[in-house]
Amino acid sequence: MSAQKDRWVSSFFFLLFCASSIPTQGSARLLQELSPQKYFSSLQAGRASLSYFSHSVSPGAQPFLEQIENSAEALQDYGISVVKVNCPKEDVSRYCAKENALRKAYLFSALLFNEVKYVETLADLQNIENSLKGRSNMVFAYVPATGTAEHRAVMEAAFVYGTVHQFVLTTEATLLKDTSNDELDVSSARLMFCHCQQTTDLVQPCRRTAMEQALTMLNIHRHLKLMGAPLVTEVTEDPEKVSTVHLQLGLPLVFILSQKETYEADRRTAEFVAWQLLGKAGVALLSRDLVDLNVLLRSNVALKTPEEGVPIKYLVLEDTDEVITLVENKSKVEQIQEDEEEEEEDEGEKENNNQDIQDDQVVEAVSRDKKRELPLEQIRALTEDTFHTALLETAQTVVLFYASWEAVSLAVLRSYTEVADHLKGTQGVLLSRVNCWDWPGICTKENVTQFPAIKIYKKGERSVMYDGMWGTEELTSFIMLSQVSCPLKLATIEEAEGYLRGEFPSELSSYHHTSLLGVFSTATSEAREAFEDAGNILSGHVTMGMYFEDDALALSRKYAVSPPALLLARSGGRSVEGIALSKQSVQDMVQMIRYELLDIFPEITVQNLPRYLQLRKPFLILFSDGDIGQRESKEMLKLAKGRPQQAFVACWLNLRKTPVGHGVLKAYFATMPSLPVLIWVKLHAGGQVFKFPSEQSITEMNILSWLEKLKAGLEIPSSTLSEEDWKPPLPAYDFLQMMETTVPELPLHTSHHHGDTLVRHPPENPGGDIMVQEEPSQDTKAEKVGSPGRDLRGTVPRLAAREKQGKRHSEL
Description:
With 812 residues, this protein is of the alpha/beta class. Helices cover 32% and strands 17% of the residues. The longest helix is centred in the middle third of the chain and has 23 residues, at 331-353.
């Protein structure tokens, strides 16, 4: 018999029969006599046979053979045939050897003969693996010796599962050591499930999941049942009602909480965790969008145990290592929950005890509303997989780059949701967001070096970065104005007139804005090019049209100017002002356009104050408790219009709409003056504050006369502002002192998280949003499954408050 066949036969499950237990009548005719070659070639799947191997029948073995022959009829009822195998003299194989020829019969199962393969070397094992890749999985067992209870368990399992999995057996301790990098005890039997069906690359080894329990038939059955369960279960119902094979077998079930916009990343995280816990716990992906969970928004992992009546525990974990520890160490659950409760108590105590410390108003506002969930249905969350495809879907894509742990980002995100509500249904505009804490690679490639940041992408054009205020009105205006080319080229005088009236383009017809039209002749190409470059810079901040047809001269003469000229239309074209273009450099033109777009008599707000402070001119400001009267408004407007290129800014402030004005007046005067009150203040030259005489009525003539007295030095200032910088009234937090340093010798060096190169860095991985590094694919990194933990990406609702985002600076 060949050596290969000898290895196969040595894997057979044998049973030594006692002849005295077999009935003894009339069965000799059923005994078959075959040669070894014919016998092994005649084995059929699903059939068993009792075989006796012999060179010749010795007198001592004759009674044993007779008992075998007499049992043939009884065994036939059980589907077992009885065969005498005549061994040739030259055959010295295992079953025909002299030491096996006496008083032994073997029960052969053809199923096991075909399905259980015996291997001696690593090359043999790898050849079987390669033949199974993409087709079937493999069960590899090591037993120190055949005939043991573990050997029996493996063979019985092969009899049951042999048609589903390929069973491979070895008794070679060297081969067992070659299959693992760890030191293994070769005196104990071991079993591994090899996931070859999902592996198609011949170079890549099959994943292996070792059975940690003792090698018994019951444990093998349990292990194979777990290996056959789905790697990750999708859950769309109440998790309390979920039952999986893991719970039925007494193992816990881990839920990874997800949401639709980060589903792909969450799925990869769940699969990574599932491979780590395979055979120890089940893993399910629980969608917050499909299941109404009455749990904290920052919770990202839940644990369900098989014990009856034990509620599901919802936790906040930072990386996958903690998930694995959670399963392996049950006491870790209670510890995590206790830590969270202590943090909440500490937060409350610090908020009560730190009233003497200046806090960031933005952080305070975010903390105050941290339990209010943001309506983000209209804003698409983008990932590395969806970012570039999303830019191609619509004509204009607006992207908010933010960090979900950072208070200013969350405050802007709230304004962004209001913008989405205003623009709901607007054609050709997609509002989206990228969490730079989760996807630093996108933000780096898009040159986002600080956050929050908003960029607008148009097909075939360069992206535009928003650099204005973060209020809802300002953001909405920027997005709406960015829909239109800047400058917009107009083809006819009718289009130009409609543009000045606010009727063209149609997408801005219902949007109140100031229109700026540049009129150029064919001889003013240099000014026209500068105007176009200025339009590119001001895109999104202003609507700019351009008309340079042959009849441009007729259009400009209508408004008493000659090309090159600007026509400025306010209030829907009811007032059109003609301005000659004397400066033709791009920067000068940008500066001039920004100045001309300022209101003549503006209402000062927190949002627009920086624009007027940049002029570095004195302020003539009327403080009013509500809207100013019609007479005062008319007189102030006449004053502002009557002096071209004013040397001061005439404006007013509504204390009801901008209550910070009360603090300004208290800084100007010892006692609060009666309202309305007109103030002259030189913020950039001396800081002197003058109050218009309250006994005089606010008219253009009275104000001009008063200003002449100020110029002549005849008036005494009511107060003089300090030349010192205005600082917060209380000390601020020392961030550097609070940061945890990576290297003690370099106290200012803080560690970067996973290659994140953004300007703002949290001092540590903040509470809720867990994750950062893109994990390798299952197929290409199978050998690295056991690599140490990765952060949980996508498993926390990044849209609402994080664990630490709403806390004071000492907790950030």
